[in-house]
Amino acid sequence: MKAALITSYDAPPQYSDVPDPTAVQSGQMLVDVMAAGLHHITRGRASGQHYSSDDSLPVIAGVDGVGRGTDGRLRYFVQEPGLPGSMAQRTVIALDRCIELPHDVDPALLAGAMNPAMASWLALRCRVPGFRWRLPFQRRKRVLVLGATGSSGRLAVQIARHLGAGEVIAAGRDAGRLAQLPALGATDTVTLGDPRLGVLASEVDVVLDFVWGQSAVIAMEAVLRHRRGRDQPLDWVHLGSMSGESAPLPGAFLRSTKLQVMGCGHGALSGRQMLTELPALAEALARGTFQTQVRTLPLSEVARGWQAPDDGARLVFTPWRV
Ligand SMILES: NC(=O)c1ccc[n+]([C@@H]2O[C@H](COP(=O)([O-])OP(=O)(O)OC[C@H]3O[C@@H](n4cnc5c(N)ncnc54)[C@H](OP(=O)(O)O)[C@@H]3O)[C@@H](O)[C@H]2O)c1
Q: What residue ranges are annotated as transmembrane (predicted)?
């Protein structure tokens, strides 16, 4: 079969012939891969930089996808290290790391959107209080999204509103992309680095942080400095590291306020929590509840697509189209 094969951490995967996967153990299933997205985690694992990267090469690229199983059903799956990647005509999935999808979904849309969407969905539903049930209007939570102009951030704005946030402040670098976010539910927008950020976001309850690094610390300092009550809880959820993998957080932030810093990603939640939450997210995406952009390419174009400049749409490879 054909697959996107990584033979070097320094080069994009190549469209190559590889043996069909055969070692299907109990709790696993062989699937025909319909679509697999090129996410940051996909690039991170392929470059050996991600904490879940394989330490031996060659490996097949791709951490998640949509596939049709031997039972004819469509599933969204996530590949744990040790299983073959998703960017191949066929792969083996773990049945406790996948969910069934409605039969009429667009596989490319789901393959492109599930990874960026699950960041905020799981953070709000599983990591912070106030989003499991719709709260009365007066008690609805206020959310700040840092890095709101990317795929995950745009979805985070929409998902926070969908799950009942009363206010969503969108902060990002690109002023043009930021200007599109009020139409998606943002109640305010502000560029990262704008001194007004601290005042605008001073009373938020939750921060969904896709940037981390020094940018996050500057934003944190600005929010905490303008806060009315130091005992007012602030849940800061680290989701991505676009501005840096380390954030030099002064201890005084934690001692002098009711700030809680936590993360949400592979490893921070149990498989059971994810399996419980993801069907509702998949259904909302399939119904078109959230606006998101995906662009498809056949898997044979993997090396070219891997190096293409970012145009704001999530790239999805479609192995079945070869
Ligand atoms: N924890 C999870 O479950 C999870 C799930 C999905 C993604 N993530 C992580 O979330 C992050 C964003 O992913 P994505 O899918 O939204 O990526 P994306 O679509 O490529 O968007 C990247 C975003 O990062 C911003 N950015 C890039 N460099 C920056 C910098 N130096 N300072 C501030 N902002 C910067 C971009 O801003 P401009 O457009 O304004 O330039 C854009 O908003 C990644 O780190 C990814 O690994 C985590």
A: none
